[in-house]
Amino acid sequence: MAFSDLLEQVGSTGRFQVLHVTLLSLPILMMASHNLLQNFVAAVPPHHCTPHANLSTSSMGAGDVLRVTVPLDQNGKPERCRRYAHPQWQLLSSNSSESLWEKDMEETETQSCEDGWYYDMTEMSSTIITEWDLVCDQRALKQMSQTTYMGGVLVGAVIFGGLSDRFGRRVLLLISNLMMAVGGTCTAFSTSFTMFCIFRVCCGMALSGLVLNSFSLIVEWIPTRVRTVVGTGTGYCYTTGQLILAGVAYCIRDWRWLTLAVSLPFYVSFLYSWWFLESARWLVLSKKPEQAVKNLKTVARINGRRAEADKINLEMLQESMKKEMACSKGSYSAIDLVRTSTMRTITVCLCVVWFSTSFAYYGLSMDLQKFGVSIYLIQVIFGAVDIPAKILVTISMSTLGRRPSQCGALVLAGVMILINLLVPYDLQMLRTSLAVIGKGCLAASFNCCYLYSGELYPTVIRQNGMGWVSMMARFGAMVAPMVLLLGEDTPWLPGFIYGGAPILSGIFAFFLPETLSQPLPDTIQDVDDRGFGWKKAKRLPEKEDLATKDPSCVLLKESA
Questions:
Q1: 105 neighbors 89 (Cβ within 8 angstroms)
Q2: Please, what's the b/e burial string for 252-274 (b: 16 or more CB within 10 A of its CB; e: otherwise)?
Q3: Are residues 220 and 232 in the same domain?
Q4: Residue 98 included in any domain
Q5: Residue 394 sits in which domain range?
Q6: pLDDT, tens digit, for every residue of 423-441?
Q7: Which of 39, 130, 164, 548 has the fewest CB atoms lying closer than 10 Å?
C-alpha cells in the first residue's frame, strides 16, 4: 500500500479536505493586497511648493498665490519641485504677457521647496508620500519601499523554506499568519519612513511563509487526481484578491486605515490555523510516526470513516511511506542543477524566463498612475484580465505545447509594452488596452512557468530547481521598481526595458525542450537522455505528466 492508498482509505476528498483547502485558501485572497498595496498607499498626488512663509495671502485668491510663487513646467503646469526665490508680483499685472509667464523660470531665480509642499488630496486623504514628503529629491524612496518589501519576500523564502522542513508546516504557518498580522498593524502605525520599510520587510517575509506552508499543507492532504483543480482554484483566489484590493482601496482613502484593513484578516486566519493538522507525510519523514497515525485517524473520523480509522496503525503507515523515506535519503543539492550541459542550459534559460516575467509583471502592475485613468479602475481591469489569460494559456499548453505557449506569451507581452511607447499620451484608451493585454500575457507566462519548470526538472532535484527559479522571480520583482527611476531623465527608458526583457527571455525559452505528452524525468540521466529534441514524444501510458503526478506545480503563481 502506498501513502496515496492510505489517504484514500481515510477519505481523500471528504469534509476534512474541503474545509482544510477552503480555510487555507482564504488568506490567499489578501496576499495580493500586500503585494500591490504600494499602488494606493504610495500614490503621488498633484503637488507644488508651499508659498513663502512670510507671504500674506489673506487678500489673494489661490490662483494668484500660485501664479506669483510657483513657475510653470514645460507642460504649462505648476512646477513640482521649484518656486520663485521671491514672489513675482508683476505676473498679476494685466499687462503681463503669456510669453513672459512661459519664460519666467529661465529668467527668474528659483529655489527648492524650503517651506514644504501643497498636495491636492481630491483622490485620497493621505498617503506615505504626503506623510513624509517623498517627492522631488526624496522621490526615489517611494520605489525603495517596494524594493525592500520584495527583498523581504526573497529572504522569507530562504528562511521559512528551511525552517518548515525542520519544524513542520503548521508551526511555521501559525508564525507567518501572526507575523503578517502584527507586521501589517505596525506598518499602519509607523511614525517614520524607516519604520514603515522595516515592517514592510516583515510582511514580505511573512507572505513567503504563508505561500510555502499553505501550499505544502494543501497538496500533502489531497490526492493526486485533484491537485490540478485545487491549484487552479487557489491561483484564482489571488486573482480575486486583486479585485478585492481595488474595492477596499476605493472605500478607504487613508493609507494607515487601508494598511490596517488588509492586515486585520490575518489575525482571524492565525486563530483558526490552530485547527490545522500537521502533514502526515512530514511527520513520518521527521520520525514522528505516532503523531502521523493520530492525525490520520482524526481525518478519517471527520470524513465519517470511523471503521477505517480503527484499522490504521504504525506498521501500516511505515509500509506506505517506504518509497518517500527512501527518496529522502538521496544526496542531491543545488549543484546538480548545473552538473551536466543539458541541466545547465535548462537552468539558465528558466532563470532568465522567471526573472523577466516577474520583472515586467511588477513593472507594469506597480505604476498604475502613468495610465492617466483612475487607479481603482485600472486595478480592477488588471486583475480581471488574469482570468481569460490563464484559461487561454491552459488551452494553448495542452494543444500547441509548453514551449510555444511560453515563448508566445513572453514575446507578445514585450511587443505590447514596446508598442505602447509609440502611442501618444493623449490616447489613454489605446495605451491602457495595450498595457492590459501585456499584463495578461505576463500572467499567462507565470501560469506556464510553474508547470513547464516542474516538467523540465527531474524528480530528484525538482524542489531545488523550483526553489532556485522562484528566487530569480523574486529578484526580478525587487529590481522592477528601481527601473522606474530611470524615467525621470529619459521617460521612454523604463518601458523599453520592461518590453525588451520579455522578448529576450522568449528567445531563451525557445531553446528549452518541449514536454507536452512526455513522461516526467525522474533522474538527471533521464533529462540528458531526453535532450533537446524538437519533436513531441509519444505518450507513455505508464507515466503521468506533472499536472497529475507531482505537487510542485500546484503553487500560487503571482506570489512568486
A1: no
A2: bbebbebbbbbbebbeebbeebe
A3: yes
A4: no
A5: 332-532
A6: 888 888 888 899 999 999 9
A7: 548
In three-state form (DSSP H/G/I as H, E/B as E, the rest C), the secondary structure along 401-461 is CHHHHHHHHHHHHHHHHHHHHHCCCCCHHHHHHHHHHHHHHHHHHHHHHHHHHHHHCCHHH
pLDDT at position 285: 73
Q: Nearest 5 degrees, angle CA 182-CA 201-CA 277?
A: 55
* 495 in the same domain as 446: yes
As given in the structure block, the three cell numbers for residue 237 are 483566489
Choose the weakest-confidence range: 221-235, 485-499, 522-536.
522-536
Lowest-confidence pick of 293-307, 335-349, 486-500, 543-557: 543-557
Q: In angstroms, rounded to a whole number, what is the distance separating the alpha carbons of residues 201 and 148?
A: 6
- How does the average pLDDT of the chain come out, rounded? 81
Residue with cell 531526453: 530
For residues 386 and 325, membership in a common domain is answered with no
Grid cell at residue 474: 523574486
156: in domain: yes
Distances (CA, A) of 230 to 115, 223, 388, 447, 549: 56, 10, 18, 14, 14
Total residue length of the chain: 560
CA distances from 240 to 18, 58, 444 (A): 19, 50, 16
Could you count the other beta carbons within 10 Å of the beta carbon of residue 458?
Answer: 20
Residues 6+ apart with CB under 8 A from 177: 27, 206, 210, 266, 269, 270, 273
Question: Tell me: the pLDDT tens digits for 183-230?
Answer: 999 999 999 999 999 999 999 999 988 888 887 788 778 876 777 677
pTM equals 0.81
278/398 same-domain check: no
Given CA atoms 223, 228, 231, 232 in this order, what sign does their dihedral have?
negative
Q: What confidence tier does 536 reach under pLDDT thresholds 50, 70, 90? A: very low
